[in-house]
């Protein structure tokens, strides 16, 4: 059983059928989920088209002959006259086009009739009008068959129309399989086409029923073992079919199935006859399938259709499933004019059907289960949601007393009572600890709403609980009142917006969080609230997140109850157990909203309130954050929820089903499947036997034979990605995603990949040679590998080190004149034992002294080289995997030519990273296919085994295990497909001209996680050639007449606002990227960095159409005015300490004023900027306006600074680099510069300062962002009479600072950004100690991995010490003592820097005096690091040139042009 499971993700609950994946229908408050397929003798029904689903073509032929004066029977004779060689049969086999058929068939009919026959007219009549309309009775029968869990297929002798499409006027979604003769090349009654159909259905012939109107077709199917029905009359055939299947095929109501919980029909019939005053009559019961916790049935009796809702059987949770309350509220609301079903009777006598129940009228109409309302126009969607809002307002406007419902619930404190109720329900059904629920149970009572209204509340108000009029956007009935009571109406409103916060792929309730709702006409959650508020007369609602947290908390409690009942065997569906387990995820989602609400409350707290610890406002950055766990993975980077991070290489989206692949790939997939079935699977036993024989180390001849056949069939080198083989010269030109689907097929047999020349390690080695090999290397080694005449191995893993991390390897590659000498010990080298293995890709170190990821190189080593020794074969779990095997190898003084080196010295790690991605996708998808095969074999086995008198296939535990395996395989499958999709659409790319492009050099560099020192991913490395491309794109976008130059200024502002909106929507995703790449605490990234980015962009969006010139009254008859024009192409170079924020500071003013941008992002932190690039394209910025090029300063940065076609450069970083940039700008084209550089900012604490506030603010001023702030208060000057107390308190506060995992919201300090910065800071600490500063605390490394440094405080620091003069840029506080104001001002100004300063005092006069005397661009008084997009920021002296932010930030991005016009006469 376990062999069929892949324990990877627990995110998705999906069921798989031959068409792909389909979501399990589900209702949030309900537990009766779709039951599995009904166990009947027959498992599938196969339909012919003409004469069965469509009207009979033979009857049409007779009518047509009569109408056109053609002798009766001519058409039939022409069809039969020449047998298989007739034009008709050739047309059915796809051998003739429509035009060829009309010509040939017309001649045959003319020969029979003795005069000209217009065959084109016959074909036209055959395919148009009533002949193309599906028979309603058959449509209803097919829907009923599928509802009962049987498969359906269409098997038709069909033909191609004039345009090349097949004639198929039926809805494809009705059928699991469609088999058309013209596509397959064979026709009925050929037995092969029937076998093909049942094979694709996955059933045996005897498990299928076939309907056809042609006798010989019926006979052929019956001879194969298929139960066949000859259709003379469709209605008669339906009656015969329903006799075989055992259920009615008429009167079907969508969404109903045969009851999963049987009712005592005799007692129920008697009760209904008495209650409804009926005579003896038949009773028909169907159960609604879409998941009611109170089982709900459609009752047909005496010509009436009723709905019966009952309690579930067995012990129930307190107050749950109260059908009596439902009956009461429906009755009362119906009288009050609310659209609800009309109730008929309440039966509280459990002897009738075992539990109380009530009856109501069945309401026909439309129920929308998909909140995106597919198939509708945007206007229709808008009206549906308006109707939904109107009916909610109606419910909440009911006069409770007049309706007789004043005792239906308690007044006031609804949410508090509900929290207690659902907490009790959760505790009663608790089966295991859910940590998020525990946190919510504590958090919710502390954040309850204070002022609320009391109305009737529905309790489960969602779109799919409403029945709409069949044609109008009007609600005719509101369903599911089980949770109704008196309470807070906003809870209903919040609950109605659940789908707004879930992604479309959410498995149990389709969401809309990643969709363009305005484009679809669907209101956002905010607009839903606005519509509701306007109707109800409400004002703003601050605590929306609290209501959402409560809503998802309640859902989690409901699901836990479902799960508990499933364990006790009381759920109304076998799949309730698996859905119930999703309670944990819903709890995590609820906690996400709770966290957001916590941040909102924190932001609203006043500064310096009496009795509170000092905290600053959130206009800038905060020194204190609430402690809470990280936001849920529902909004995690690991899911990329939001899903998609860049435009695809091909049009389209993530393809999860082979049936959605492009046609040519579908054809390839089908051929591969057929080859597997026909040639590889039958040979498996023979190949397995060979693997266990004494000859196992010699390749079996059959493999070579199969390889030749596969190559001849075009099934060869399928793995080579289109990205590197754009013209499909080496392979077939598939994307990674397309190939992943083929890989899954290959995984069904361990022998398959080699047959198709798609097996590891050859695939990875071939891709290395394609990407990085020289022409000589390709000719010598790639060509024979592509031809399959040799094999290869990859030598990296070593016995003595954990060499899955390539930086650990010890093997050496040493240059010796024109050769390299190789020494190393390698093991588990797959493929090395194969006698066909001729080449080894070897990884070793060429320069152990280089940086960690530049020490390694890769080189090609022929396996017959002297010094290469195979020590022994190694087994994996006892399996040798002959003949390729896994070898232990020694390389002792192996000499190979220098030309065998790949790409260059120090490039090995880069190559290894590039090689890893595709190979991992291949392995994973093959494992998915392997698991599929295991599950298929297991299912076949349990069908034939019996235990305890019952087939294993009917045992509950077996069914549960199969379901769990199915789910886990699908979870793994979707994760891998998503990864393949991202490789195709993002990969290692630069963003130039709105396209994702490889670096010209193909170079990449590693982005390192500073928390672990491990590689996150490889990023394309831009250099001068890429900068040239980006500048050209920017220049083209800036040309006169371009879309960007012609765009209205207000529209530029609109684009910036859209970008801000998208960034805000993806706040959690971007915050995780920032934390992962930079190391800053997630809480800070989430609550400070990203919100400030959004504010900055919105601020400059407002400036876009307000940066105007002036009219100037010059002397004379002239009209003079000025224009503010964009500078042009702006080069922008941003740092690594605030990647997102610095990107916004640069982009905002540049784009608002109409410039174009080439931005180099820091090599340490490129990821968030690249994601924003994706959003820039998504929101509609024209191509070339923004270009993002990650790279290194000496190459990409220098190229921007010195580029002759860049008009301005803006840089944030060190003073030293700023000087180089200014020199380059001046010596090239004298481009404008804005430089925001380093600092050594004084923070002055006067003796009258509030000590507690001063200590806390000074701590924040230095340690915020791990001390990596250009404006950090790094020289703390304290007046001598409070010096000792201040130092003591500062040390005490610093020792409490929490350093650790930046994803833990209790963490205040994460790692430094990289190893270089880490070592630099430790060096400064050593210098401080050596020069005599007193180390008060910290001073060392804070963790055994990653770049964590202890928060450090130095006392007794002197002005001439290195740590007091140079910018440390780390968590090292220096405290200096002073006596007088004049002294401290002089000392504070005694620095080359002048970026920022602060003073803490209660004396306003002193504050003004000191701030006026300090030589700094920004001075804070009794606060620190308060930033707003409205206020300018920049430095004096060596801290920079120019200003960023505010209105001042616009100056350097515009040129002022004076225009003077001669006028006939000037008048004032």
Describe the structure.
With 1468 residues, the chain is an alpha/beta fold. The protein is 39% helix and 16% strand. It has 45 helices and 48 strands. Strands 40-41-42-39-38-44-45 form a seven-stranded mixed beta sheet, with helices on both faces. The protein has a six-stranded antiparallel beta sheet with strand order 8-9-10-11-13-12. The chain has a six-stranded mixed beta sheet with strand order 35-34-33-36-37-47, with helices on both faces. It starts with 13 loop residues before the first strand and ends in a 6-residue tail after the last strand. Mean pLDDT is 86; it is low at 1-40 and 605-652.
Strand content: 15-25%
Q: Structural class, from helix and strand content?
A: alpha/beta
The total count of helices amounts to 45
Helix content: 25-40%
Give the beta-strand count.
48
Distance between the first and last residues' Cα: 94 Å
Radius of gyration: 37 Å
Instruction: Give the rounded overall mean pLDDT.
Output: 86
